[in-house]
Structure formats: C-alpha cells, structure tokens
Amino acid sequence: MFAKFRPVLAVCFFAFATLGLSAVSVAQVQSSNSQNSGSEAPSAESARQALIDLLEDPRGRQVLIEQLEALDLPEGGGTGPQTAAEARSQRSDAADTGSAADLSQESETQTAAPFAVRLGEYTQVIMDDFVAVWDRVGRSLSGISLLADGTITIDRDRITTAMLQVGLVLIAAMVLFKLGQWILVTVYRKFDMTARYGGWLTRALMLVVTTAADAATVAIGWGGGYAVALLSFGGLESGVTLLESLALNAFLITGLLKVGLRFVFAPERPELRLLPFDDPSAVYWCARLGFVVSWLGYGIMLAVPVANLSISFVIGNTVRFLVTVFAALYVLTLVFRNQQKVKAGIRAYSEGLSSEITKRTVYRLAGFWSLVTYVYILTVLIVWLFRPFDAVAIIMRSTGLSILTIMGGMLLSLTMTRAITGGIRLPENIRESLPALQGRLNAFVPRILKIFRFAVFVITLLILLDIWGVVSFLSWVQSEGGADLIGRYSSAFLVLLVAFAIWLAVMAWVDLRLRSRSGYVVTARERTLFQLFRNAFTVVVMVMAALLSLSELGIDIGPLIAGAGVVGLAISFGAQTLVKDIITGAFIQIENAINEGDVVTVGGTTGTVERLTVRSVRLRDLDGTTHIVPFSSVDMVSNFMRDFSYHVAVIGVAYDTDIRKAKAALEEAFRRLKNSDFARSIIGDLEMHGVTNFGASAIDIRARIKTLPGDQWGVGRAYNEFVKDVFDEQDIEIPFPQVTYHAATPPAAADLIAQKKKRSKADPSSVKPEDDAPPDPDH
C-alpha cells in the first residue's frame, strides 16, 4: 500500500522543500533591504544591553562560542566573511586574468553535467536545508530541557513585577478601548438606516469614516495606557518602562490589525460589508482571525520580550517558537475545517457576477484557495524559523502591506463593479435636457471601468509579489525605463480620455440642438445635417485620438499619415463612383434638396425618404418596397414637400353639361371640404382654371387647391369624394368612354335573302313571315 503513494509523497516533499527555499530567500532579501535602509537599525545602547544579557546567560554564551568556532574565515588572514561585492570583484578579476582555455573548459564541464547530477545536487541542498530547519527546531525547544534540569531558573519576583506593570497598562488601555467601541456602536445605530438605503458612494464614505473612528478608539486606549504608565510605578520621574512600552505597542499594533479585519468583515455593520458574507460567517471569521492576530501580536511582541528580559534569551526563543507553531497549527486547522464551506461560498458568489471571464476566474480560484492559504502559512512559519530575530518585522511588514494592498484593490474593484452593474445615473434635470447622454455614458463607461478593474487586479498582484520579494515591481516603476513606459501609456490614455470627453460634449450639444422646445421645432433638414455632422465628427475624433495615442506611445505616425494619404489617393482613383456619391450627396445636403421624411423622386423612383447618408438615400415607395439610390445616379431631384403643395383636380363632364353649373358644383364641393377636418391643411382658396381640354367623350375642367406640404394627396382624395356627391345631387353626368359595335352579314345569308326577295316579287303569297327575320348567327 505504501509503495503506491511514493510518487505522491515525493512530489509533496519536493513542493514543500521548494517552498522552504523560497521562504528563506524571501527572508534574506527582506532582511538585507531592511539592513541596507538603516531605518530599523538598533541603537548602540540597545545592542550593548543585548550583548550583556547574552553573555550573562550561560546557555547563550555557549551558543555564541559555538557559532564563533564554526565561523569560516577567509584565507590570508581575513577578519570576516566576504561580502557579496568582494566575491563578485574576485570573480571578475579571475575572469579577467585567467586563461581562456580554463574558462572554456569550466564552461564545458558545467554544460556537460548530466541532468541527474544537477538534480542530485539540488536535492542535496534541499536536504541540507531540512536538516538546518530540524536543528533550528531543536535549538528553539532547548529552553524546555534547560528549565527542566534547573540550568535556568525563574525569578518569581521579577516575573511578578513585570506582570503587574504589563497588566495594569493593558487593563487601562482595554477599558478605554471598550468604552470607545460602545460609544461608536451607539452612534452608528443612529445612521444604520442611512447606510442601508443609501447609495454605494454613501456606504463607502460611511465605511471609511467608521473605520477611522474604530482606529481612533484603539489610539485612545493606547494613549490612556501610556497615561496610566506615567502615573504609576514611580510617577513621571521614572517615566515609562520598557515592558510597559512593549505592552502598549503590542496593544496598538494588534488593535489596528483587528480594525483592518473589522473593515473587511464588518461583523456589526452588515450594511457596509465589502465581502459577500452572511452575518454568522462574518462574525465567525472575524472572531477566529482576531484571535490569531491577538495571539501572535501579544505573544511575539510582548510574551517573548518579557521572557527575554525576565528569564533568558533561550526561554524567549522557545516561547517564540511555541507561539508561532501553535498559531500556524490553529490556522491550518481552521482552513481545513472550512475548506469546503468557503469553496461553496466563493462559487455561489461567482454565479452572481456579470462578466463571464470574472465569473470563470473566481469559480476556478475557489478550487485552490486553501492551497494558497497553506502556502502562505507555511512560508510564514519557515521564515520565522530561519530568521527568528527579524521575522516579526519581515512578516508583519509583508502581511500588513499585503492586507492594505488587498483591501485597497478590493475597495476599488468593488466600487467599479457596482458602477458597472448599476450603471451611471444622471440627475433628473440633465436626463430631461439630454435624454441620450445617460445611454451614451452607460455604453462606454462600464467598458472603461472593466479595463480599469483588470488593471487594478494586475497592479495589486504585482505589488503583492513585490512585497514578498518575488519581483521588483516598485523598483522597476521607479527606474528610468519603467517611469518612461508608464508615462507614455498614461499620456496615451489621457489623450483617449480627453478625446472621449470632447466627443461626449459635442454629442450632447447635438442632442440639445435636436431637441424640440417651446417655440422651436426641429426641421427635417436640421436633423439630417446634424446626423451627418455627428457621423463625420465621430470619424475625425477617432482617427485623431488613435494617431495621437500612437504618437504618445513612441510610434512614428509620419509613415502612417503618408501611407494613409497614398492609400486614400489609390482609393479615390479606384472608387470614383464612391467619391462622386459623397461629393454629390454633400452638395445635395448643402442645397437642402432632400430631408428625411420627404416624398421625392430620385433616379426615377418616387417614395418617402427613410434614411439619408452622405453617399445614398433610402426610399420606401407606396407598395412598401425599399429602394437605395446612390447619389452618383441622381441627375435630378423632385421634392414634393417644399414650402407648400397643390392638388390639381381635372374633372371631366359630358358635352351636353352646362359649364357654369359644373363650375358651381366644383365650388360647392370645395366649400364642403373647407367645413371638414381637412380645413387645417388648406392654405388658400380654390383656383378655378376652367375648361382645359375637349376629350373624346368629356370636357375637362381644371381646379387647383393649395395645401400644406405633404397633405396634397389626402386633400385630393377628400375633394374627389365631395365632387362625386355634388354631381350626383345635381345630376351632372361624369361621362366615360363608350364603344358601339356593328355586326356584318355573312355572304351565304346575303344570297339566301336575295333569293327570297326574288320569289316574293314573283309570288308574294309564297313568302312566310319568319322568312323576313334575319338568320341566326349561331346556325
């Protein structure tokens, strides 16, 4: 059974070994940076006191002697280990003075080393590190054996005095802190309705304000503790002791870290909660993680120094190890017990996300969140084991900066997510004046915010990696190349942002001009011209913004402009019809020949103008057929809707009709038309032109009615109905063409008739009456 799991165990062993090496390297880098900065260097007095305490401790003195004996000194009488700069200098000198053959041989030897050998060397290093870790664990637990065999004794009076000092200032600080928390909760309850029903901006502002007030309660407790420390144990003359300062500093840092937890989980402020936790889960995680923070904060920053100063450094090292290991085991157990619950919660939250990419990313992250947590906990533990003296500074600094970075990134991301989901809402008066502005903003701003949100995610990840020493993102940002690259991309983005703002302002102005107001009606010509201007301006802004952005990025746009000119010239030669369409369409619009909604005849097609561009016009005729007519094929435009129109009525009457009576009937029909609903479309009297034509079967009388543009057809149909009614009342005939047919007699019938006539002449009595009837054509 065990043989089946050997590959798995080997992979796990290799992974945790690599994790240990990474942790050690991170700790060394962070320690080197802190030492080089000089801002955290201990004072000479504290270093002297620490050395005195170490020499007074028998066990500590023995460990120091062993370390000095094991120290490798450089050959040639050197006084200390080589620095990294000296080692690089010596390697550089050897490379300059050595022979080329030796260097070539060494290079070939390194290159020719088999993979198995290199893997074995790497495994050996890993095992040496594990042995070092195990040795470090043994040394950390040596204080227990020294206490057991009596080598180290505990001074009870000293411990009692230290506990009294620490307990008094901590109790005072805690009482003031709890009092401030009670006041804060009481005040917040008065504004919980505002937070519950307010907008996202109101809730974000209240979250920041309440968090600042929460931190202020910690500061008040910290200040009260210092006041108690000054007034007790000797008064103002003795000042604050080191133990009291350590206790209050532990209270301050631990309290601020808990403020950060309450900022994220908001157990008592559910309306302001950032993460999608329910109330029991928020209280659970805030309490458990708060316990871990308190355990580590007071254990490392208070219990360990008290053990060092009151008992021995060896006991302090043992206390540090036990505090760290217990906290790591507690958090690992906490993660293991809630692994599936948190996984299900994250995946349930991902279902409510709007972006499909974000939804899939969060869904997949839910599968290995626990693995990331395990790696972080083990990394912290290993750093603490390898660098026990400066591990607190490294871990607290890295963890604190990581929490602040994650909270800042989450706050920005959630703010943008709410803006993306809810959209941009403008005030009511602006929506009434510019109804299309909000739609345009919601069409572009959410997409821009999605880009910003992705950029925030990437920058947050890079900053986290920089905090833990994996990459040097901030150093690269401060470098000349990084600053130049960021500056160029920022300038390009600023150009795009300004171009978008200008385009949005011009579009809002166009919408305002196209909005009908009291006393002002937008004509079809204005609507068409502004739409053409809108399209042309959009193209110009897009081209200019693209060229300027590329120029800010360092791309030479001269060849692009020249190439665009050549391509434009080639297109103009190859697309002469298109150019003719555009030029003709531009002049048609300038001359106000066609507008949307007009009834026109262009290219031999008559219809209503549905859409007008700079290249073509789209018509819909009476049958509902759509015609797209390019302007290059238009040599004449007939517009039926300019200023006014006429309905020309040509009425035919019979030749025997009295013309004066017919004219009077037409006048009567017009009077009836004026009394109908069509009176508002008539802008003049009836123009009687009289007899205009003598037709084959009728006399044509013409009359004309002046109407509003576009109403001539409806007025004409109604007028024809009234004319028919009046003619029927006055018995005026409206003739219609008639045809008279004459049937020719067949030859056989003509001979038979002639014979009958001859017989009748010879003998009239022999002719029968039916013989005089014409023959039946069907027979």
Automatic annotation (TrEMBL):
It is found in: Cell membrane. Residues 1-27 form the signal peptide. Residues 399-476 form the Moderate conductance mechanosensitive channel YbiO-like transmembrane helix domain. Residues 768-779 have a biased composition (Basic and acidic residues). Its main location: membrane. GO terms for molecular function: mechanosensitive monoatomic ion channel activity. Residues 648-734 form the Mechanosensitive ion channel MscS C-terminal domain. Residues 577-640 form the Mechanosensitive ion channel MscS domain. Residues 536-576 form the Mechanosensitive ion channel transmembrane helices 2/3 domain. The keyword DNA repair does not apply. The chain crosses the membrane at residues 162-188, 200-222, 242-261, 282-304, 310-336, 365-386, 392-415, 454-477, 489-512, 532-551, 557-579. It comes from the Bacteria. InterPro entries: LSM_dom_sf (IPR010920), MS_channel_1st (IPR049142), MS_channel_C (IPR049278), MscS_beta-dom_sf (IPR023408), MscS_channel_2nd (IPR006685), MscS_channel_C_sf (IPR011066), MscS_channel_TM-2 (IPR011014), YbiO-like_TM1 (IPR057485). Keywords: Cell membrane, Membrane, Signal, Transmembrane, Transmembrane helix. It is a multi-pass membrane protein. The keyword Signal applies. Residues 73-108, 754-779 are annotated as: Disordered. One of its GO terms (cellular component) is plasma membrane. Belongs to the MscS (TC 1.A.23) family. This is Small conductance mechanosensitive channel. The lineage of its organism: Bacteria, Pseudomonadati, Pseudomonadota, Alphaproteobacteria, Hyphomicrobiales.
